[in-house]
Amino acid sequence: MHIIEIGRMDKIKLNSWDELQKLEAVIVGSVYDSSFFDGVKNTKISNVLKKIVDETNEDIEYFKQQLKSHNIQVLQASPKELGYKDSILDYVDVNGRMGFASGRPDLIKKNLIPTSPLQVRDDSIIMGNKLLITDRTFEVEGYVKKFIEWFGEDQIDLSIYNGYMQFKRSELNLISAARDRGLPEDYFIKNPDPNVSSLMGFCSPNLTRIGTTCMVDLWQSADILEFLNERYPQFSYKDVCIGGHLDGIFSVIKPGLVIAGPWFKGNEKLFPGWEIIYFNDPNWDNIIQWHKLKDKNSGNWWVPGEETNDQFTEFVESFLPNWTGYCEETIFDLNCLVIDDRHVVVNSDNPDLLKLLESKGITPIVCPLRNRFFWDGGWHCLTLDVKRSGGQRDYGL
């Protein structure tokens, strides 16, 4: 896969205060070429992985064409440009153990194959005229170099990435950490462990910028507010605790209109006077194939048609756990990208959602993302809007 940056090669002046004004420049994530999996000789595994990345690359190319048709500048870098290796076998040591590392030991994750640099928004956000890197991970490492190339170091806030900041997990997050390790829920609350309680950063989708106001989810860490108030006082902050990754819970489509999933109920006061339309999640209970797989992977991901492919399931669960999320708790149809006040990109042709948008004077641009239930993300997750027209506006929140 050879990816060419589209648009001017001069530095872009960052400008993004919300997700409503006209989009002018955006970063789009990328995935491996299918040849990356040539080293997996079991075709019941490799053929599925190749199909997933081939379809994802096709979907990304179509998505980019739609953006270009709206005169939006697209920036993209291939995994190789971001420091990833060419083959899955390059991440296997002489003893056959899988794992990866980088030049910085603090970024290493053991016994995993690095996930594609697909969800660029997970660890990055534009706070007006600054690109804030919110975490220190392997996936971010390559992007930081590209960010400097594209925008210049003076427009990038590296305070978290360089290790100058630390955050503390909330009690709810400590409970989640204990569950993940098969421990009693209150284990880390009663037995504090600095290696668990301290965080090197936080997830960018915990923040939703809406002009002068920024919604902040404190499920991961309450320290986020202190950091933001000090570094970015141009925003006023409204705190919530819904579970993080707000873009899987609600989307602001235009001033005065929000579409939301059921998890948002009880938080309507965040948008006083705005119309909030609830959009139901997929009815997983009626999908028999889904239940066949859920018993094996706890509802984390789904590749339709591969529910009984136990060899593929075991491979993903054993070696690619960081590639997937928890798709049962996300409504990907809500994870959309606003182009301007009349156009929004959606990742499925759900007739209810399309009719809803059209009834509000918005033209939906359908860009299929066939493997969103594997990657655990929609078009909002896979992009980072770096330039929108206009400045910081007060939307009355």
What would you call the shape? globular
CA-based gyration radius: 20 Å
Number of strands: 17
Ranges where pLDDT stays below 50 over 5 or more residues in a row are 1-8, 102-111, 283-288
- CA-CA gap between termini: 44 Å
Overall pLDDT: 84
List the secondary-structure elements in sequence, H or E: EHEEEHEEHHHEEEHEEEEHHEEHEHE
Total helices: the number is 10
Q: What class do helices, strands and sheet pairing give? A: alpha/beta
Helix content: 25-40%
Quaternary assembly: single chain
Strand order of the largest sheet: 2-1-17
What kind of sheet is the major sheet? 3 strands, mixed
Report the β-strand fraction as a percent range.
15-25%
Give an overview of the whole structure:
The chain is an alpha/beta fold and 397 residues long. 25% of the residues lie in helices and 17% in strands. The chain is built from ten helices and 17 strands. The protein has helices at 43-69, 138-151, 171-180, 187-190, 194-197, 223-231, 288-297, 310-319, 351-359, 372-375, and strands spanning 23-28, 73-75, 124-126, 131-133, 156-157, 167-168, 198-199, 207-210, 213-217, 236-240, 250-254, 257-260, 275-278, 337-340, 343-346, 363-366, 383-388. Strands 2-1-17 form a three-stranded mixed β-sheet, with helices on one face. Helix 1 crosses helix 8 (310-319). The radius of gyration is 20 Å and the shape is globular.
